[in-house]
C-alpha cells in the first residue's frame, strides 16, 4: 500500500531564521519528520540555509502590529493573506505555533475544514495570563483546535486552568527535543575541587532573571567565573550590576550566537546556570547543556523540575543566596560534579528530536483521519 506524504502548514510570525528557541525547534522538528511536506510562514529576513528544513518558506508581507487598538485590523489583513496561502496550498493539517498569537488566529479563521493542532510555547500562555485581549485570542484558537500540544504537563495544567478546563480532552503533552547526534561531550572530566567556569545562555529579560546568577557570584565562597551569552533589554542593567558588585573580573558578556557556535563552546565550561524565575515552558537550553555533559544548577520551577527531575541541582527561583550555595556545593565536591554530569547525559537521551517529530506526526495523522 502506498503511503501518501502528509502536508502541513505552519509558521512563526517573526524573522525566518533560527534566532530563538521556537524557531530553532521548528527547524529541527520538521526536518526530522518523515514523509511530511511543510509550508512555513515567517518574516523577512529569511535564512536560506535554515529554510532547507521546509518544502516552502513564505515570508508574510502584512505589516506586523502587536496587541492594542490596531490589533483587530492587523489580524484581518493577516487573515486575508494567510487565507490566500491556505487556499493555494490546501494542507492536510495546520500546526498553529504559539497558541493565541496573531498568526494562529489567522490560521483559525481561514482553516475551514482543515484540522488545526495548536502548539503552546510559553510566552503565549504568559501573555494570556496577563492580558484579557490575549486571553480571548487564546480561547478562540483553543476552541478551533482539534488538539492542543504542550511540551510539559506543567504548561498543559496552566493552559487547562486558563481555559476553565473546557478543552482538557484536547491537551496532549509532547516533550521537545534536540538533535542529540550533534552534541559533543568535553574530553576530560573535572578532577579537582575549586571555582567553576559557569555559563548562562538566553534572552536577557526580567523573566529569564540573569541578575540572579550575577548577584549569586557576589555571595559565593569560591571565585566562580560566569560567561553570559545572549542579548536583551536588560543587558546594560546587568553590566552595571556587575560593576556595582565589583565582579568585573568574574563576569563576561558575549552576544547571542548561533546554536552551532554555542554548542561548540559548551564543552569548555564546568556547569550551566539556569535562572528563569517565572514560567518556563520547557527550557531547551537545559537539555542542550546536559547533552554536552554540563551539570545544571536550575531554578526549581515546575516545568524545569519536570524536564530535569533529579538530574540537576535545584535552587529557589530568583534567590541569589540559594543559587550561591548550590554552586559552591558543586565546586567543592568533585564526586557530586561527576554524578551530575552522568545524570545530565542520561537525562538528555530522553529528549531526541526524532521522538518529538514522530509523536507529533502520529498525532497529526490521528487528527486528519478522524
> What would the CATH topology of the largest domain be?
Rossmann fold
**Shape, please?**
globular
The SSE string, one letter per element, is: EHEEHEHEHHEHEEHEHEHEHEHEHHH
The CATH superfamily of the largest domain is known as Glycogen Phosphorylase B
Structural class computed from helices and strand pairing: alpha/beta
Largest sheet: 7 strands, parallel
**Low-confidence parts:** none
Strand content: 15-25%
Round the Cα radius of gyration to an integer and report it: 21 Å
The proportion of residues forming helix, as a percent range, comes to 40-55%
Question: Would you identify the CATH architecture of the largest domain?
Answer: 3-Layer(aba) Sandwich
Count the beta strands.
13
Molecular structure report:
- The longest helix has 19 residues, at 71-89.
- The chain has helices spanning 21-31, 71-89, 102-110, 123-130, 132-144, 153-162, 210-217, 235-244, 259-265, 284-291, 302-308, 320-332, 334-348, 353-369, and strands at residues 6-16, 36-46, 56-59, 93-97, 116-119, 147-150, 171-173, 197-201, 225-229, 251-254, 271-274, 296-299, 313-315.
- It folds into two domains: 6-177 and 352-369, Glycogen Phosphorylase B (Rossmann fold), CATH 3.40.50.2000; 180-348, Rossmann fold, CATH 3.40.50.
- The model has no long low-confidence stretch (mean pLDDT 93).
- It is 42% helix and 18% strand.
- The strands form two sheets. A seven-stranded parallel β-sheet has the order 3-2-1-4-5-6-7, with helices on both faces.
Label this structure with key terms:
370 residues; Rossmann fold; seven-stranded parallel beta sheet; six-stranded parallel beta sheet; 13 strands
